[in-house]
Amino acid sequence: MIPTGSIPKNGTTRISLVRHGRVYNPSNIFYGRMPRFYLSRKGYIEAAHTAEALKHVVIDQMTTSPLLRCRQTAAQIGKFHSHLKLRQSSLITEVLTPFQGQPADVVDLRNGDVYTGIDPAYEQPEDVLFRTQRFIYRTRINCFEKHALAVTHGDVILFMLLWASNVPVTPQNKAKFTALDILDEYPATSSITTFCYSTDKKDERPSVTYFNPNHHPPY
Q1: Strands 192-197 and 207-211: what pairing?
Q2: Distances in Å between the alpha carbon of 114 and those of 100, 106, 124, 168, 212?
Q3: What span, in angstroms and rounded, lies between the C-alpha atoms of 36 and 24?
Q4: Could you give the angle at the alpha carbon of 157 between the alpha carbons of 41 and 17, nearest 5°?
Q5: Cβ distance 180 to 122 under 8 Å?
Q6: How far is CA 77 from CA 55, 97, 115, 193, 194, in A?
Q7: What is the pLDDT of residues 77-114, one digit of tens each?
Q8: Mean pLDDT of all residues in the chain?
Q9: Is residue 170 predicted with pLDDT exceeding 90?
Q10: CA-CA distances (angstroms) from residue 153 to 117, 128, 167, 197, 202?
C-alpha cells in the first residue's frame, strides 16, 4: 500500500503529479479533451487547499497539461511560487477517447473503462503510460535531485501508479484499482502523487507517496 498523508520534501529526484480540481459540469458529460471546461467553485477551493499544502515545499519546475482546468489549478499553486515559469506539455494531457462528449453515465456503466473495444485510432492505457513516461524521464533529467510538479489528469496518474507498483497497465486493472491494495481511492481531484527516484536509470521504478488535501488538510 502506498504511504499517504505526506509530501516528500528532500533527498531524491521528486516528481509530483497533481490532479486538477473539480470541474464545473452541470450537464454531466464526459468532457475528455473538450475545451473551456473550467474549475467549479468547489474545484477552486480544492486547488487552494493543494496550493496551501505546497506553500512551503521547494518546487524547481512546474508544468501543466494544456487543458484549462489544469492551467487554473496550476495558477493557484503558482501564487506561492512566483519564481517559476509555468510550462505546458501535451504529453500529460487527457486521454484521447471516443467517449468524449457523451453522457458521463455511459462511462460510469463501463466502470470508467474508456479503452476496451474501441477503435485503434484512440488511446489505450499503454499509450497513455508511454507518453507520460516520456515526460517523466525528460523531467528527471532536467530536475535531477530536485523537485518538479506537473498538473495533469486522473488516468495519467493512475497508470503511473500501476506501473510503479509492478501491476500490468490494463483496463481491467484500472477497474479494480482499489482492490489491488495500491491505494484506497482513484487519484482524487487536487491530490498530489509524488514519484521519488534515487538514480538516473531510465527504467527505475520509483517509490510513491500520496497526499489528498481533503483527507489531510495542510492546516
Answers
A1: antiparallel
A2: 9, 10, 8, 17, 25
A3: 10
A4: 70
A5: no
A6: 8, 29, 32, 15, 16
A7: 999 999 999 999 999 999 999 999 999 999 999 999 99
A8: 95
A9: yes
A10: 22, 11, 20, 21, 23
Percent of the chain with pLDDT over 90: 95
Per the listing, cell 484549462 goes with 68
DSSP conformation letters of the chain = ---BS----SSSEEEEEEEPPPB--TT-B--TT-TT--B-HHHHHHHHHHHHHTTTS--SEEEE-SSHHHHHHHHHHHTT-TTPPPEE-GGGS----TTTTSBHHHHHHTTT--STT--TTS--HHHHHHHHHHHHHHHHHHTTTSEEEEEE-HHHHHHHHHHHTT----HHHHHTGGGGTS-SSSPPTT-EEEEEESS--TTPPPEEEEE-TTTS---
Residue 160, amino acid: M
Question: What is the value of pTM for the model shown?
Answer: 0.96
